[in-house]
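FW: tagging you since you asked about this chain on Friday. Here's the raw sequence from the shared folder, copied in full. Didn't touch anything.
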Amino acid sequence: MIGIIGKKLGMTQLFNEQGQQVPCTVVEATPNPVTKVMAEAGFSSVELGYGAQRTARPNKKGERTPKGDRATKAELGHAKKAGLEAAPAVLKSFRLDDAPANGEAPTYNVGDVIKVDIFTPGERVKVTGTSKGRGFQGVVKRHGFHGGPNTHGNTKHRKPGSIGAGTDPSRVIKGKKMPGQYGNKQHTAISIRVEKVDAERNLIYLRGSVAGPTNGIVFVRKQG
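HL: got it, structure written out here
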């Protein structure tokens, strides 16, 4: 289903008609240009762009190219085909409804713009984001282990304890919950209710929380 690329601004609260407090995540989704239209076997999809990358300045005397990452020539060429002046910072493909048997072209064309007004208050959406990265963590924080006693001579307060039998199977079973990288994973929440759409400021108010830090990139898709 069609969607939009946005940036998570943070959380706030709204009050509904019954006077109930509703916690909401605010997503800023500036108009997304359609950079590519793809028609595959059985379905079609569109590629949307968000933001803008820095571009190297022309190599003229006295001008310096800004430091840091800059758009490649391939990205600039791709953006030029779509009629954009700068290469988008984020590209994301959204699959549309299954194409009919006669293979009609999708309803979107290169150069079209997707705005937040494709959503209406009350509908349900899917929200995909990347959770906060917490680095290397132990089993208590990573998996919710209770840990050992804190008194009576115990010295293994937050350690995982035994991780397997020695005789049988004489190895550690795959998937054993152990310390390791925690967070920084893609997560999709389904059936998130759209509470409010502010088309003038390009804002979407989503009920509850969604994965990701402040200013993190999120993908909001319609839910069929």
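FW: Helices lie at 73-81, 139-143.
HL: agreed, and The longest helix spans residues 73-81.
FW: great, closing this out.
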